[in-house]
Design goal:
74% of the residues lie in helices and 2% in strands. The protein is mostly helical. It has a two-stranded parallel ribbon with strand order 1-2.
Length: 486
C-alpha cells in the first residue's frame, strides 16, 4: 500500500470519510487534514488568544508568587517566631526550588495526558497549598506548603511554550511569544511591589490569599474556555471514538513508550548531559549563577531600602520595579539585535549556534558592572535612583544572557533541546534556592559595597570566559558530542 493511502488525512467535514474523517476500509494511520477544524492551528484567532492569555497569566502569577513574600520576610519571621533571617528567606527559596525542578516531574505527564490537563492539575495543586500557606501556624507548615505550591506552579512553565507552538504557526509566533514572555519578566518585580503594600496595610497572609483568588479565577476560566492543544492527544482521543480503534493508529503513537520511560528520559538524560557535555556545563554554571544572584537581590532588596534609606515598606517595595524595567529592556535589546546579528554572520555559511552567543560577551561584562554600581552606590547611600540604575543594568544584562543561553541550547542540541535546557534548570533551581540563604549574612558582614564586589568578581570569572570559549571552541566541542548538532 502506498504512503498516500496509508496516511489518509482526517477531515471532520468530509462525508466520504465518515464522522471522524477516516476511511475505515483503507486507512490504518490517521492525521489532521490541511483545514481540519480540530487542528489547533486552524482554530479561530479569538480562541487562540484566549488560550494564550490564560497561559500567559499563569506563567505571570507563579514568578509573582515566588517574590511576593520578599518584602514580608521580616513580618513572617516575627509572626512565626523564626530564629534568624536565613530561616525567613527559606520561605522565598523553597518555592523557587520546586518551581524550577517541577518541570522534570510534570513534563512527562503532559506527553501522556495532554498540555491543558497538566496546566489544570498544576494550577489546582498550587491553589490548594498556596491557600493553606495563609493559614500556617508555624514555620514548618509554611515551608512545607511553599515547597508543594512551587511544584504545582511549575505546570504553566512546563506547557506554556508548547501550547503556543500548537496554536500558532512559526510566522505568527513572534508577538505571541513576546506577550507570553512578559509574565516571567515582570512577575518577580510586580509581586514584590504588591507584597510590600500588603505588608504595610494588612497581614502578610493576604499575599497567599490574594494570589490564590487570582489562581482560582484562572482555573475557572481555563476549565470553561480551554481545549486540549497537543496534537497527539487530540488524535488519540479521536481514534478512541471509532468503532474499532485498535485497527487505527496516529503518527505520534509509540506502543513501546511507557510513562516510566518518559520519566527516565526526563530525569536521567539532563543529569547525563550535565555530567558529560562541556558546553552544557559552561552554560549551566553561568546561567545558574546569574539566576541565583537574581533571587539573592530579591531577598535582600527590602533590607537596603528599609535599613539604609529608612523608607516605609510600601515605598521601599517600589524599587523592585527597577529590576522589572531592567529585565524588560534586556529582553527587548536581545529581541531586536539577536536575529539581525545572526543573519549577518551567517551570510557566508549556513549558520552556527555560536552566532547566538555574540550578545553574551557585552552582557557578561555589564552584569558585574551593574552589581558593582549597585553595591557601592547603596553603601554610600547616594540618591535612590543611583543604586536602582545599577541593579537595572545587572537585570538587563542577566536577561540577555538567559535568552542567548536558551537560543544556543535549542540550536546546538536540536534533538535533545528539552534535556539540555532541563540540565540548566536543575542547576538554576539549586542556586535560586541556595543563594538567598547566604545573602543576609553576607551583607551583614561585608555591607553592600564589599559584599556585592565579591559576587561581582565571581560573575566576571564565570561569565566572561563562557562566550569566548563557545565562540572559539564551540563548533569543535559540538563535533565531538554524540548529542549536539553538527
Amino acid at each position: 500500500m502506498s504512503q498516500a493511502k496509508q496516511l489518509y488525512e482526517l477531515n471532520a467535514n468530509s462525508a466520504e470519510t465518515g464522522k471522524f474523517g477516516i476511511d475505515q476500509r483503507q486507512s490504518t494511520l490517521i492525521a489532521f487534514s490541511e483545514n481540519d477544524p480540530d487542528n489547533p492551528l486552524n482554530w479561530p484567532t479569538s480562541r487562540k488568544w484566549i488560550i494564550t492569555l490564560i497561559v500567559s497569566l499563569s506563567v505571570f502569577l507563579m514568578p509573582l508568587s515566588s517574590s511576593i513574600v520578599a518584602p514580608e520576610l521580616s513580618a513572617i519571621r516575627d509572626d512565626l517566631q523564626m530564629g534568624s533571617s536565613t530561616e525567613a528567606v527559606l520561605v522565598l527559596s523553597a518555592f523557587v526550588l520546586t518551581y524550577c525542578l517541577g518541570p522534570l516531574l510534570l513534563g512527562p505527564l503532559s506527553e501522556m495526558y495532554g498540555r491543558v490537563a497538566v496546566l489544570h492539575f498544576g494550577n489546582s495543586f498550587y491553589l490548594v497549598f498556596n491557600l493553606v500557606c495563609g493559614f500556617a501556624r508555624n514555620k514548618g507548615e509554611l515551608l512545607a506548603f511553599r515547597l508543594l505550591a512551587g511544584f504545582g506552579g511549575a505546570g504553566g512553565l512546563v506547557v506554556g511554550a508548547g501550547i503556543i507552538s500548537d496554536c500558532f504557526s512559526k510566522e505568527e509566533r513572534g508577538w505571541v511569544i513576546a506577550i507570553y514572555n512578559l509574565g516571567p519578566v515582570f512577575g518577580p518585580s510586580i509581586g514584590a511591589v504588591i507584597g510590600g503594600f500588603i505588608t504595610q496595610y494588612t497581614t502578610w497572609r493576604w499575599a497567599f490569599w490574594a494570589t490564590s483568588i487570582f489562581d482560582g479565577a484562572l482555573i475557572v476560566l481555563g476549565l470553561v474556555l480551554m481545549k486540549e492543544t497537543y496534537p497527539p492527544i487530540i488524535l488519540a482521543r479521536r481514534k478512541q471514538k471509532l468503532d474499532s480503534p485498535e485497527l487505527f493508529r496516529t503518527p505520534y503513537e509509540n506502543p513501546d513508550q511507557s510513562l516510566a520511560q518518559l520519566y527516565r528520559n526526563s530525569l536521567l538524560r539532563p543529569l547525563l548531559l550535565l555530567r558529560i557535555q562541556p558546553i552544557i556545563q559552561l552554560l549551566a554554571l553561568f546561567y545558574a549563577y546569574l539566576y541565583g544572584l537574581m533571587y539573592l537581590v530579591l531577598s535582600t532588596f527590602t533590607t537596603l531600602w528599609r535599613e539604609k534609606y529608612h523608607q516605609p515598606i510600601g515605598a521601599s517595595s517600589l524599587h523592585y520595579l527597577a529590576l522589572g524595567i531592567g529585565y524588560f529592556l534586556g529582553s527587548q535589546v536581545c529581541g531586536f539585535l539577536a536575529d539581525p546579528i545572526y543573519r549577518r554572520l551567517k551570510a557566508n555559511d549556513s549558520g552556527k549556534p555560536e552566532y547566538r552567543v555574540v550578545l553574551m560577551l557585552p552582557a557578561s561584562i555589564l552584569a558585574p558592572v551593574g552589581l558593582l554600581w549597585y553595591g557601592w552606590a547603596a553603601q554610600a547611600e547616594t540618591h535612590w535612583i543611583v543604586p536602582d540604575l545599577g541593579i537595572a543594568l545587572f537585570a538587563g544584562a542577566a536577561m540577555i544572557s538567559f535568552q542567548c543561553t536558551t537560543a544556543y541550547l535549542y540550536e546546538a542540541f536540536t534533538l535533545y533541546a528539552a534535556s539540555a535546557t532541563g540540565a540548566v534548570y536543575i542547576l538554576r533551581g539549586l542556586t535560586g534556592f541556595g543563594f538567598p540563604l547566604f545573602g543576609p549574612a553576607m551583607y551583614q558582614k561585608l555591607d553592600f559595597g564589599w559584599g556585592t564586589t565579591v559576587i561581582a568578581l565571581v560573575a566576571v570569572v564565570l561569565g566572561f570566559p563562557v562566550p569566548v570559549i563557545l565562540w572559539k571552541y564551540g563548533e569543535r566541542l559540538r563535533a565531538k558530542s554524540d548529542f549536539a548538532a553538527g
